[in-house]
Amino acid sequence: MTSPSPALAEGGFPVVGIVGGGQLARMCQPPAVNLALTLSVLAESPTASAALVVPHSPVGEHTDLAAVRALARDCDVVTFDHEHVPQEVLLALQEEGVALHPSPQALVFAQDKLAMRRRLTELGLPCPRWAQARDAADVEAFAAQVGWPLVAKAPRGGYDGKGVLVCRSLADLEPWLAGVGEGGLADGILLEEAVDFSRELSIMVGRSPSGQAAAWPVVETVQEGGINTEVLAPAPSLDPDLAAALTEGALRIAGELGVTGVMAVEAFEVRDPGTGAPAYLVNELAMRPHNSGHWSIDGAVTSQFEQHLRAVLDLPLGDPSTRAPWTASANVLGGDYPELYATYKHLMARDPGLKIHLYGKGVRPGRKLGHVTVTGGREGDLGSLEELRERTRHAADYLQGVVTE
Amino acid sequence: MTSPSPALAEGGFPVVGIVGGGQLARMCQPPAVNLALTLSVLAESPTASAALVVPHSPVGEHTDLAAVRALARDCDVVTFDHEHVPQEVLLALQEEGVALHPSPQALVFAQDKLAMRRRLTELGLPCPRWAQARDAADVEAFAAQVGWPLVAKAPRGGYDGKGVLVCRSLADLEPWLAGVGEGGLADGILLEEAVDFSRELSIMVGRSPSGQAAAWPVVETVQEGGINTEVLAPAPSLDPDLAAALTEGALRIAGELGVTGVMAVEAFEVRDPGTGAPAYLVNELAMRPHNSGHWSIDGAVTSQFEQHLRAVLDLPLGDPSTRAPWTASANVLGGDYPELYATYKHLMARDPGLKIHLYGKGVRPGRKLGHVTVTGGREGDLGSLEELRERTRHAADYLQGVVTE
């Protein structure tokens, strides 16, 4: 652990370095302000989302060892806004004694989907059937086993549905097969069966280096075009045994993989082929604050951003309980309206209880610009959740220019 | 209204200037981050509480017209961390077209307690009996009317109990009478009857330049040595008619005085001398976020800091409803423990639901370093409020070194 620079922090309070200046780093700033923790963000540019709100935000690339090393010099621990820091950079810093959370040994399972599938399968955790494919013969063999369509994934570098292809025949995969051995396909293609799921779930857990762990309730995530558009917390009408199994599974993954900080486990809700009972299959892991946890800012006693800071500093974890029976959250994606400020004024007038979170980014179609959250409702009353959903969906649609009143 | 500097804000979002870099400016940063509003803080030093967390924090004095003018040049509106900006500075800027919220014409009633008493009395709002005293004869005349002891107040420049003297005889007031005509006593001394109150209450309201206003519930404030130590929201066992009267009174004050931003009305709970019914007398006004509203960060849908930003920008106001049956908050004052970080680690382990707010200040005895808040309990159940109070009092005592386990 390096010594904090007196220029950054005073009074024995630590400095948390974050590699990457996106909205996840930005949303760490409010809890850091509350807890008197100092952030230092390695940002892509001086106008990166987090750099706009964190005083100490040196500009540099996450792939540049010297830049990450310079960040680490001023910090007590270093964590990440995204999962794209190369292993060679991480391992070099670890060798030099920098406290990285999560460690490169844990993070690799969020960076490399083949490594993740292999490890979770070893641990006996439920996954879709999968295979590693380097050529057409591998693909044909797996298809013979699970049938078409297949889901192909680039093991490295994918996000928000990029690097994922649903393919109905070998022909669909030809361009990918041609790329095997390079970049995200260096070790081949990850093939998975197309899961027949009823909905997508996500669970987030926080885990500290001391091994303390805490889980938020399982949430339902609604996706459109591979991008998460809505989160409902807790997941409505979720079978309690399935909730317990998924929570247990996520805590086990965090422990076995040595995760530090917060982690999201995205899962498919399915039926057990034997018993017909509700069951889950792990879809993806993310070792950082995650879109499916944004609801916790307004809806939980401890938000995922506060918990991430507490966890990476090995502070005792906060209470992940909900603060209301229901929380609904919707993502705001870039649309046709370039003037977000004018639209949000209107929304504030329409719905005084709406919590608006914007990331300070310029509008580009499809870009994640923010999210909106509403909490409230009545315990077990799905109609009251539906009212919250209508409010967040309207707000997101309005900010995106999909509806105009 | 000046044009925002493109260096500070992008995409049509406004910049809010705050004169003063204390904890009130600091606590505006979390909601500013959420709402993509940019702050610019005129700070006393580069390590002022707010300057530690707001990227654009030029250093300068609030009494320096040139420094405040330079701040205003980059901002859409200017507001205040404290009430000490001289009227001549405010009036000069107003003349130059700077949008000040609150305006100097409103702020004077929070700066000058004599002006406040005069105006509230004109409006028929309930105040303790009071008089303006320039010499011993004035004091004797007022004492003959209301009896000893009297409360003497410096009309200008007092805060946290400073500038207030309970006097039992004319002798106690001699040093003050000698100072009449200078500084805070330029217009004499404000004398007030010593009110026989059962407890102190506070109500906060937000009001926008358009005239939209919203009130939080009335809270109880517990004071020790003239400093607020605890806030209970809502005020337990408060007579509903008194709550309504105080809320109405505060909204009327905000409207009549033309307040923009948030305002606290501190009041004494008394008995109506005629009917014996619960009643109130206005004690003090503050036209800015206030210690008695810190509970709203965790306990209300819209915090006083978010509301202040919305109000000064003339944005529609947020919902001030509570998020839990009870919220208890306690101030953390500087004590014997210089190492806050070590103590707060312990508290996090002891109480995962505790919300800790520290202001990034060095420990000095008696200095306001932070506050702690807990929300929860059961509607109308005073025992459940008492449990929350025990948690916040213990946490504050522990951080202050009063208790050691």
Question: Could you characterize what this model shows?
Answer:
Two copies of one chain form a homodimer. Chain A has 13 helices and 16 strands. Chain A is globular, with a radius of gyration of 21 Å. Chain A has 405 residues and is of the alpha+beta class. In chain A, β12 (261-271) and β13 form a beta hairpin. Chain A folds into three domains: 15-100, Rossmann fold; 129-193, 2-Layer Sandwich (Dna Ligase, domain 1); 199-399, ATP-grasp fold, B domain (D-amino Acid Aminotransferase, Chain A, domain 1), CATH 3.30.470.20. In chain A, α3 packs across α4. Chains A and B meet through α2, α12 and β15 of A and α2, α12 and β15 of B. Chains A, B: ATP binds at residues 113, 153, 192-195, 200, 283-284. Chains A, B: Belongs to the PurK/PurT family. Chains A, B: It is an enzyme of class 6 (ligase). Chains A, B: It catalyses: 5-amino-1-(5-phospho-beta-D-ribosyl)imidazole + hydrogencarbonate + ATP = 5-carboxyamino-1-(5-phospho-D-ribosyl)imidazole + ADP + phosphate + 2 H(+).
